[in-house]
Write a structure and sequence with these properties.
The protein has about 210 residues and is α/β, with parallel strands linked by helices. The chain contains ten helices and eight strands. The protein has a six-stranded parallel β-sheet, with helices on both faces. Strands 2-3 form a two-stranded antiparallel ribbon.
Length: about 210
């Protein structure tokens, strides 16, 4: 296994505080009732456009308002999950190329990775853009741009969208249970492996 693609929110970093505050800011600005916690968790992971589409008619306005808060404060309200930095360091020592493939707005990925001081570990960073509206397209762009051998690559993520993206592009899929998704959803999506802690990923890669 020579290339590992990582999701960001819920996989590398617990960014739930900043995301929830950004949603709260948006719903308040639009004078809409704030979703319950159980519902709110389902909004974390998909592209913003998809999340807001269930609640507002003017999705573009909602996304713009969300980013008003997120760019100023929300992106910095995140922290690495325990053992993530140790995992990244060991993978790099082992000669594995690391990439970020996230549904987050691409410029914000750079800001967050720098803030968390882990940007140095990644060979390439790919996020949501108008040309890449979903996780499958983000992963596809990464694989193509970096000329990655599909047989030697895997995606690591905490939601079914990561697993679907990996399946759609023909790479291995590793679901993680410490993020925003449910283990049952990862299994239902067809994850090749399930990891319950970051360092478990090292063991999984050895089995590839």
């Amino acid at each position: 296994m020579k290339s590992i693609l990582f999701d960001l929110d819920g996989t590398l970093a617990d960014s739930s505080l900043g995301i929830k505050k950004s949603f709260a800011y948006t719903f308040k600005k639009l004078a809409l009732p704030f979703p319950e916690e159980k519902t709110l968790r389902t909004l974390i992971g998909p592209p913003l456009e998809d999340s807001f589409r269930h609640y507002v008619n003017d999705v573009d306005t909602a996304v713009t308002i969300y980013r008003e808060y997120y760019k100023k404060l929300g992106v910095f309200e995140a922290e690495l999950y325990p053992k993530i930095q140790e995992l990244l360091e060991q993978l790099v020592v082992n000669g594995v190329n690391l990439y970020v493939t996230s549904s987050k707005n691409e410029p914000m990925i750079y800001v967050m990775l720098k803030h968390l001081k882990i940007d140095k570990y990644f060979t390439g960073i790919y996020g949501h853009t108008p040309e890449r509206p979903n996780k499958t397209e983000v992963i596809k762009t990464c694989l193509s741009s970096e000329q990655i051998n599909h047989q030697e690559a895997a995606i690591v993520g905490d939601t079914k969208f990561d697993i679907f993206g990996g399946k759609n592009t023909g790479i291995k899929t590793i679901g993680v249970t410490w993020g925003f998704g449910l283990e049952s959803e990862l299994l239902l999506a067809g994850a090749d492996y399930i990891c319950h802690s970051p360092l478990d990923i090292l063991k999984v890669i050895e089995d590839f």
